[in-house]
Amino acid sequence: PPTTIEMAKWQGNGYSMKSPAYKGQTDFKLDGKEYTPKGPRVAKGTTVSGKQTGDHNMELTYKLKGKTTETDRWELSADGKTLTDTVTYAGESKPGSETPGGARWQESNV
User: Fold this and answer.
1) Sign of the CA dihedral 88, 94, 96, 102?
2) Among 5, 7, 85, 96, which residue has the fewest nearby CB atoms (within 10 Å)?
3) pLDDT digits (tens, 9 = 90+) for 26-72
């Protein structure tokens, strides 16, 4: 089954992404700056930066100690109910895995 990810608004134009399975949380904005994910399974030195790539798309780049480890491309469906995450791992030319329908968008003020 797909992994459940919860995404909600955070501090105005930011987002808060929670992964219950990994007990992790990442709060970020689509400003290209690096943010530090939180949780017991997050490796020390991990950062994430985000940018908007379209009206319903964003790209998150994960780094470990300054080196890119993966790039996630998120797309929100036209009805606003489904997020699709396409993951590309560093050193691979094509996406490693997709989790269509595995994410849940929550419209809330955090």
Assistant:
1) positive
2) 96
3) 999 999 999 999 999 999 999 999 999 999 999 999 999 999 999 99
Overall average pLDDT of the 15-25 stretch: 87
- d(C-alpha 62, C-alpha 24), whole Å: 14
* CB under 8 A, 24+ apart: contacts of 78-86: 80/105, 81/105, 83/5, 83/7, 85/5
- Residue 65: CB atoms within 10 A of its CB come to 10
Q: What is the CA radius of gyration of the chain?
A: 13
Q: Are 10 and 27 in contact (CB under 8 A)?
A: yes
Q: What is the DSSP secondary-structure string of 3-20?
A: PPEEEEEETTTEEEEEET
